[in-house]
Amino acid sequence: MNMAELKGHPVSIVEMGPRDGLQNEKMQLSTSVKAGLVDRLAASGLQRIETGSFVSPRWIPQMADSAEVFAGITRLPGVRYSALTPNMQGFDRAVQAGVDEVAVFAAASELFSQKNINCSIKESIRRFTDVCAAANAAGIPVRGYVSCAMGCPYQGDVPAADVAMAVRELMALGCYEVSIGDTIGTGTPQHVHDVLSRCLQEASADKLAMHFHDTYGQALANIMSGLQLGLSTIDASVAGLGGCPYAQGASGNVATEDVIFMLHGLGMDTGVDLSRLIDTSHWICAQLERHNQSRVALAGLPVARGA
Ligand code: HMG
Ligand code: MG
C-alpha cells in the first residue's frame, strides 16, 4: 500500500498509557489518578484502552491495584477496557474485575521470557492455553503479544522465524490479534518490514498490531513501514510513558499524540480529539512529575492545522 492509498483507511489505536505507560513508574500513583487517566483517555475518543495488569504485585508493584482501577473507572459505551493476564490466577482476577478483554504475553527470545515471566517460551504457551480456553468459554476476547520481535536486551538479535513461530502459536490458541513488540525500540524500517512480512505468512494484516517502543526514535518510521504492509492497529502510550521493567533502558511506547498527528496528516480517521489528548498528556505528566516525551504535546497543535 502506498502513502496515498492510506487516506481514508480505517486505523485502530490501542492505548497503552495506563498499563505499559505506568508499570515502570517509580512514583506510586493513587488509584483515583489511574482511573482518572483511563477516563480522560476514553473521553478523548480512544476506544481500546489497556487499563491494567493482573500480574504478580511483587513483580510489578504499580499494577497491584488494577482491580480497584477497574472499579473506579466510568465506562463509556463502545470502549474496550483490557488487561494483561500471565496465568490463570491473573485471568480469574481480571474476570472478577470485569475486564472486556485480556492479553497474554509471550516472547520471541528465551532469555527475555525467563526474565519477564519466569518461565520458558514453551511453558508460557502452556499457561496461555489454559487462559485462552477459559477466556473462550467465558466469551472474553484474548489478545497476544510477542516481545523482543526486533531484538532482545539479553540475547541480541532475534530471528524473524522465532517471531513468526510465536505468532503462529498465539493464533493457534485463539488470540484474535497478535501485537508485535519492539520492546527495546531497536528496529528500523527495513528490519520491521522484514519481520512483519514473515509474520504475515502466519496471520493476515488485520490480525497483527504494531507495538513499538521509541527508545531510538524509530517508532513513527517503523509504523509507516507496517502501514504500508497493510497493518492498521497501532499500540501507543500517552506522553510516550513507559517501558518494561525487564528491559533496562528501554523507553516508552511511541507517544499516542505523535501517532495521531501523523495519521491525521495521512488523512486517516482515528476518532481521537487530539487537543483533548494533549491536555491529558500534560495532566498525567504533572501527576508523575515527569518530562513529557511527546513531541506533539510539547509543541502544541499548529494554528492552521487544527485537531
Ligand atoms: P512466579 O514467581 O514464577 O509465579 O511469577 P508463581 O506461580 O511461582 O507464584 C509466585 C507468587 O506470585 C505466589 O504468591 C502467587 O500467588 C503469585 P506467594 O504464594 O509467593 O505469596 N502470583 C500472582 N499474584 C497475582 N496475580 C497473578 C499471580 N501469579 C502468581 N497473576 C509471574 C510468574 C508470571 C506471575 C511473574 O513473573 C509476573 O507477574 N510477571 C509479570 C511481568 C510483567 O508484568 N512484565 C511487564 C509486562 S510485559 C511487557 O511490558 C511487554 C509488552 O508491553 C510487549 C513489549 O513491549 O514487548 C506486553
Ligand atoms: Mg511494551
Domains, number: 1
Bound molecules: 3-hydroxy-3-methylglutaryl-coenzyme A, magnesium ion
The SSE string, one letter per element, is: EHHEHEHEHHEHEHEHEHHH
Q: Any idea what the radius of gyration is?
A: 18 Å
Summarize model confidence as the mean pLDDT: 96
CATH fold label:
TIM Barrel
Silhouette: globular
Share of residues in helices: 40-55%
What is the CA-CA span between the terminal residues?
A: 25 Å
How many strand units?
8
Tell me, what is the CATH class? Alpha Beta
Count every helix, treating DSSP H or I runs of 4 or more residues as helices. 12
Give the helix/strand class.
alpha/beta
- The CATH architecture designation is Alpha-Beta Barrel
- Main beta-sheet strand count, sense and barrel state: 8 strands, parallel
Low-confidence runs of at least 5 consecutive residues? none
CATH superfamily: Aldolase class I
Strand order of the largest sheet: 1-8-7-6-5-4-3-2
Classify the beta-strand content into a percent band: 5-15%
What does this 3D model show about the protein?
- By secondary structure, this protein is α/β, with parallel strands linked by helices.
- It has a single domain (3-299), classed as Alpha-Beta Barrel (TIM Barrel), CATH 3.20.20.70.
- Helix content is 41%, strand content 14%.
- The protein contains twelve helices and eight strands.
- Strands 1-8-7-6-5-4-3-2 form an eight-stranded parallel beta sheet.
- Helix 2 (31-43) packs antiparallel against helix 11 (274-288), helix 7 packs across helix 8 (189-199) and helix 10 packs antiparallel against helix 11 (274-288).
- Bound molecules: 3-hydroxy-3-methylglutaryl-coenzyme A and magnesium ion.
- The site of magnesium ion (MG) has 7 residues, from loops.
